[in-house]
Design brief:
Largest sheet: none
Radius of gyration: 43 Å
Strand content: under 5%
Helix content: 55-70%
Structural class: mainly alpha
Shape: elongated
Number of helices: 14
Number of strands: 0
Length: 290
């Protein structure tokens, strides 16, 4: 029986030493096989061709995997920087935070009211959902309002505080602020009651009367018009009621609430309508009187 030494003898025999034919043949044989075996291995394939993800643009590939990753990281940073510069807001309210000093003077009053405008609130919600930047949304809004103003689509802006001050009777000029407000509310209520009286006793269509109040009672001039008509019909001057006096404009809580509900900001559909205040006042009225 041959031993293991005998089996591998050619590799260790003097004939296989360096310079012998056997040694040269053995080395040559192993050298011929080695490249073929390495070429067939997965490691050889990986080194020869970098990984190429499906759908990645050609411009993103580098000379090797490291080069590709570097290019992808650079592109990702660019996207993040762009999004940061676009000023995408966290909530829809950010769209209404205008810099009024930079807005055209003629539309500043309207722009300043957008924060409480329910229509603009709905548009802002959609803008937030679509990822519209704050700067883009505000630029579009300013352009739209400027064009509308130039086209004469806006009514003259009304300052509620100023209009109320013009309705304060002279007899209340030196009274405390609370009593002055009461006198103004009585004057407004008296005008509203006059229109209701015309509906009840003079045949004025109720829808026409409500429309007249909606369109005129938000200004001092509109209320003065009602007072002039009342003077023609009743033959009296109702323009300067005394605080705490005057027909249906008493000081009971019911009448105070009615006076509040008659204000322009309490009229649904009016441009000054305030839903939050309206709901609160209506809830109080129902609680008091059902």
């Amino acid at each position: 029986m041959r031993t293991l030494f005998d089996k591998f003898l050619p590799a260790y025999s003097p004939e296989g030493e360096a310079g012998s034919p056997g040694a040269d043949a053995g080395l040559a044989d192993r050298g011929d096989r080695q490249p073929e075996e390495m070429g067939d291995s997965p490691a050889g394939d990986s080194a020869a061709s970098p990984y190429r993800p499906d759908g990645l643009p050609e411009t993103m590939f580098g000379d090797n995997d490291h080069g590709t990753i570097d290019k992808m990281a650079e592109a990702l940073k660019g996207y993040r920087d762009r999004d940061a510069q676009r000023q995408l807001p966290e909530n829809a309210e950010a769209y209404s935070q205008f810099d009024l000093e930079s807005a055209p003077e003629e539309i500043r009053p309207m722009i300043g009211e957008l924060a409480s405008d329910p229509l603009f609130g709905k548009v802002s919600a959609i803008a937030l959902e679509r990822g519209v930047p704050v700067g883009d949304m505000q630029a579009i809004t300013l352009s739209l309002y400027s064009a509308a103003h130039e086209a004469g689509m806006f009514e003259q802006h009304i300052d509620p505080a100023q209009e109320r001050s013009l309705l304060m009777p002279e007899s209340a000029a030196n009274l405390p602020k609370e009593q002055q407000d009461q006198a103004i509310d009585q004057r407004l209520q008296a005008n509203s009651d006059f229109v209701d009286l015309m509906v009840q006793n003079a045949g004025l269509d109720k829808a026409v009367g409500e429309h007249a109040k909606l369109m005129l009672m938000d200004t001092a001039a509109g209320n003065q018009f009602f007072e002039w008509i009342a003077g023609q019909v009743q033959g009296t001057d109702r323009a300067q009621p005394q605080p705490g006096q005057g027909g249906n404009a008493g000081t009971s809580r019911r009448e105070q609430l009615r006076a509040e509900l008659a204000k322009p900001e309490m009229q649904p559909g009016h441009r000054m309508f305030d839903r939050t205040k309206y709901d609160a006042l209506e809830a109080e009225y129902r609680s008091e009187f059902g």
